[in-house]
Specification:
- This protein is mainly α.
- The protein has one domain (10-124).
- It contains four helices and two strands.
- Strands 1-2 form a two-stranded antiparallel sheet.
- Strand 1 and strand 2 (46-50) form a beta hairpin.
- The radius of gyration is 24 Å and the shape is flat.
- The termini are far apart.
Length: 126
């Protein structure tokens, strides 16, 4: 089975090569200087900074807030099963109606554990 492609115009070919080289150069600089690139919370800006400083900031945030814990294994399936079991129990004992059950039952394909994104707020950086 052979595929046929329309030839790419020379100008587009050169532009694609230049963009590929630029992308490769950016990737090399990110590795070389141990940088991270993150989308910021506000507007469509990117934060580029030291990965080491980013890790320090995250660790300091953890210590200051005590809002998060690092987990060693993923408890997602266990939690999801307990929620489904509880909802099934509530429904079978007629403590909730079918429409309530349908509203609350989690979808295994779209449900995920809450996690820390920690997007830098560049508008607050001094």
């Amino acid at each position: 089975n052979s595929c046929y492609f329309t030839p790419l115009p020379y100008k587009d070919h050169i532009e694609a090569q230049e963009q590929s080289q630029t992308t490769a150069s950016i990737r090399n600089k990110i590795k070389q200087f141990k940088l991270i690139i993150r989308v910021t919370d506000k507007s469509n800006n990117f934060y580029i900074g030291s990965a080491i400083e980013f890790v320090k900031t995250v660790q300091q945030y953890f210590m200051d807030t005590n809002a998060f814990i690092v987990i060693k294994e993923n408890p997602f399936n266990e939690i999801l099963n307990k929620v489904i079991q509880l909802l099934n129990n509530l429904r079978s004992n007629i403590f909730i109606l079918q429409w309530q059950y349908n509203e609350m039952i989690p979808d295994r394909k779209t449900t995920e554990l809450a996690h820390l994104y920690f997007n830098p707020k560049t508008h607050k950086i001094k």
